[in-house]
Amino acid sequence: MKNISRYKVEYSILIPLIIFFLISIASIYSANQLLPPSAGNLAIKQALWFLSGFAVAYLIMFIGNNFFIRYCWFIYIIGILSLILLLLFGEPINDAKCWFNLFGIATIQPSEFMKIILIITIAKLINDFHTKYREPKYKQEIKLLLKIIIITFIPAILTFLQPDTGIVIIYFIIMSIMILTSGIKWQISTLFFGVFFGTILLVIIVYYINSNFFISIFGSNIFYRIDRLLDWQKGIGMQLNNAMTAIGSSGLIGFGFNNTPVYFPEPHTDFIFSVYASNFGFIGSIFLIMLIIFFDLKLINIALKSPSFINKYIIIGILAMLTYQQIQSIGMNIGLLPITGITLPFISYGGSSLLSYMIMVGIIFNLSNESLRFTNIRI
Predict the structure, then answer these.
(1) What does the DSSP 8-state code read for residue 350?
(2) Are 173 and 321 in contact (CB under 8 A)?
């Protein structure tokens, strides 16, 4: 049996991360020309966040996943308290209380870290359930389902009040995929998803049929947010039109590095893919998409090799979060999906989101090491 280091890093995951880093820095540097001078040099800031993120990933490897699994409920409570404190004491930025201001040096967005906390908490809940009940009854599975719904809706409501609709959708995506793969009987899952999506459909029907009645029930704030989500169907909006123009006119190889000829808002965050595509064209875009697919497939491979069910549940949650954000972010840049303010993982600018992804990377490296040890033990 080979001697496997506890801190071994799988290069098939590390190398894509390094390429993501290079693409991110190049794209953000190019996006900087579309931003006011007060924004500063975001490429340097992103590089510092990446370096901090790699340090955090190594720290996670040093601590180990068992610590986070063992104390997940305590960490969950801290996450909920941070969302409550944000609503009470957070300083509004663009009419939203989504960030804590750290002495003017940086901002921290608790909801980004709540995604990882939610994944680990649901994974532990499902794993503990199946450890306790080998052949669970309907009543016991319904209780599990209700627990998962409750621990998801608490942060979802608090995040919705900030307001941040995009991350709320991510919470529900994580919850839905983890419920589907939890082993709960299909009859119970079908009933839940029928009620869940039926309620959403009813709300949308009311929105379309009678907007005044909708506003009287849900308020103008929710009406505006749904209207913004569905606005993409009308094919209007300067941001989307200009982003699609930048992509569509870039040709096979693009306009070249640091050359984004068309202006559109939020080029460094929500519309980073448009900046990258305009610089590097169709070939560059295909390369990035293939790299993303390769990275996601490696996560699936780790899940398949893992001997631990809780590890599989964690990977499933991470994959649900990543693939949704990847599809949603690229889809809204090319007009196929509504604009929800979802950033492209590892590419878009953002300290909190990047640190949360690097925490996830540390967890993945730990899971990879466990799978590698198991494989060598079997050999």
Answers:
(1) -
(2) yes
Most confident of 203-207, 264-268, 325-329: 325-329
Three-class secondary structure of residue 96 per DSSP:
strand
Asked if 115 and 167 count as a contact pair (C-beta separation under 8 A), the reply is yes
d(CA 354, CA 358): 6
**Distance between CA atoms of residues 339 and 321, nearest Å:** 17
Task: Give the amino acid at 30.
Answer: S
Domain extent listing, the chain: 26-378
Q: Is the confidence at residue 270, as pLDDT, over 70?
A: yes
Q: What is the pLDDT of residue 104?
A: 66
Q: Tell me: pLDDT of 94 over 80.
A: no
Q: How far apart are CA 116 and CA 98, in angstroms?
A: 17
Radius of gyration of the chain (CA): 21
239, containing H or E segment:
helix 238-248
Residue 265 CB neighbours (<10 A)? 13
* Burial status of residue 351 (CB atoms within 10 A of its CB: 0-12, 13-18, 19 or more): buried
- pLDDT band of 377, cuts 50, 70, 90: very low
Q: How many angstroms separate the CA atoms of 85 and 351, rounded?
A: 20
Which of 339, 333, 325, 332 shows the shortest CA–CA distance to 248?
A: 333
Bridge partners of residue 103, in order along the sequence: none
H-assigned helices in 254-342: 272-305, 309-333
**DSSP H stretches of helix in 181-219:** 186-209, 211-218
With tokens 């590890």, the residue in question is: 311
Give me the half-sphere count of Cα atoms (radius 13 Å) on the Cβ side of residue 206: 17
Q: Which two tokens stand for residue 360?
A: 């996830």
- Look up the pTM and report it: 0.89
